[in-house]
Amino acid sequence: LIKSTLVKYSKTLGTDDILGSKTGYTKKAGLCMASISNGDLDLLLVTADAPYESTRQSSIIDALNIYEYYDENYHYYNVVNKEDVILSIETKYGKNKYQDFRLKEDLIKLLPKDITKEDIKYEYNGINLITSDMEKGTKLGTLTISYDEEELTKVNIILEDKVNFNMFRFVKVHWIFSSIIFLLICFICLKLMKKKKKKTVYKFK
After folding, report:
1. What residues contact 33, with CB distance under 8 A and at least 6 apart?
2. What are the phi and psi torsion angles at 18 (to 5°)?
3. CA distance 133 to 59
4. Separation of alpha carbons 190 and 186, rounded Å
5. Confidence of residue 122 (pLDDT cuts 50, 70, 90)
6. What are the start-end ranges of the H helices in 42-174?
7. DSSP state of 74
8. 15, 143, 175, 199: least surrounded by Cβ within 10 Å?
9. In Å, how far from its chain's centre is CA 111?
10. Burial class (CB in 10 A: 0-12, 13-18, 19+), 84
11. 30 phi and psi angles, rounded to 5 deg
């Protein structure tokens, strides 16, 4: 975009955020203008149907008001860090009770300045239990991250490491059953030992 009156006008207001703009006119759009800003926010703005004036400054005022509004009320918000756990799915007899999932990179979006972590919603649709027969690379489902009912991103949840069966965890989960089996085995062993002892023939000289 070439430099124009909007750039010069914005400088008189003490800001250098406007990089450039271009005015135009069509029968349907009326007087319109495209402009770009690189202040705290990188914005591309198109205004249309401005009233015709000899000075043609109404579209300039509209553009500056819009830029000011976004500068005062919006910022780039780090919705999710790539180190953050976005989802945990239970494993069936895996070494760890849950398998954690993270994003590949930070999720940064232009959002209102008064937003909090509690305003971000996570909706998972997919498998809720990972078993040892699932291969690495299996798609488990999708996770949608949204704000104010607007989708910010949707990611596929992929099993990146195969979950191997862990006997210790199995015994820990089913300790009553495992205890009964252990006692039953001990009982059988004792019975066999007694039976073998009765069959033993002793010879004395």
Report:
1. 6, 21, 22, 23, 24, 46, 47, 50, 59, 60, 63
2. -80, 120
3. 63
4. 6
5. very high
6. 58-73, 167-173
7. E
8. 199
9. 15
10. middle
11. 70, -155
Structure confidence by residue, pLDDT tens digits, 154-198: 999 999 988 886 666 656 655 555 566 666 777 677 766 766 665
- Give long-range contacts, CB 8 A cutoff, 24+ apart: 41-45: 41/70, 41/71, 41/74, 41/75, 41/76, 41/110, 43/67, 43/70
Nearest Cα neighbor of 126 from 67, 161, 86, 76 is 86
Predicted TM-score (pTM) of the model is 0.69
Find where tokens 């945990």 sit: 88
**Could you give the count of Cα atoms lying within 13 Å of 166 in the half-sphere of its Cβ?**
13
**Crossing angle (nearest 10°) for helices 58-73 and 5-12:** 60
| pLDDT at position 3 | 47
106 is written with which tokens? Answer: 């930070």
* Per-residue pLDDT tens digits for 58-81: 788 888 888 889 988 999 999 999
Per-residue pLDDT, 31 = 83
